[in-house]
Specification:
Elements lengths: L8 E2 L5 E7 L3 E10 L5 E9 L5 E2 L9 H18 L4 E4 L4 H18 L3 E7 L2 E4 L8 E6 L7
Parallel strand pairs: 4-6
Antiparallel strand pairs: 1-2, 2-3, 3-4, 4-5, 6-9, 7-8, 7-9
Length: 150
């Protein structure tokens, strides 16, 4: 996680992060960790924050700051998991191109993140240890509990 990143503002329960994407224009983006029906499992949403407070995961801003946005997304996952150590974060991209982008970003950070996080990729319903260069429909991230002794 050596990429430059934006500062963010987080909600009181550390479930939502806001930041300003500064590129071709100024866009407020949000990252939300939304509980799923499974215990201790949260779906991560990343997108533009619309005026009504919803997160538009379909928007494609092409603001020229993808690396910074992905860096703050990675940092928000680590921060969320440090505050919710039993949680699992599910990442499912809204498009194939975004899925590739997320996988490239995770693959690039594996040397650092792999020491602290369990990262599983899914082909259908079957999980496997995340491997760079493979396409996954879904990724699940959790803390390695044996790495919590600092």
């Amino acid at each position: 996680m050596n990429e430059a990143f934006y500062e963010s503002i987080l909600s009181g329960k550390h479930m939502m992060f806001w930041f300003e994407s500064i590129g071709r224009e100024s866009i407020i983006k949000a990252i939300l960790f939304r509980p799923t029906s499974e215990p201790d499992t949260y779906k991560m949403l990343l997108g533009d924050l619309d005026p009504d407070g919803s997160i538009n995961v379909e928007s494609r801003s092409n603001n020229g700051d993808t690396e910074k946005v992905l860096s703050i997304a990675a940092r928000s996952i680590v921060f969320f998991l440090s505050d919710h150590p039993e949680a699992k974060v599910v990442i499912e991209a809204s498009t194939e191109s975004r899925a590739r982008l997320y996988q490239i970003a995770i693959g690039r950070e594996m040397e650092d993140l792999g020491n602290y996080l369990n990262i599983l990729g899914f082909h259908g319903e079957k999980p496997e240890a995340f491997q760079s260069g493979k396409n996954y429909k879904k990724i699940i991230v959790s803390l390695k509990t044996d790495q919590l002794n600092f």
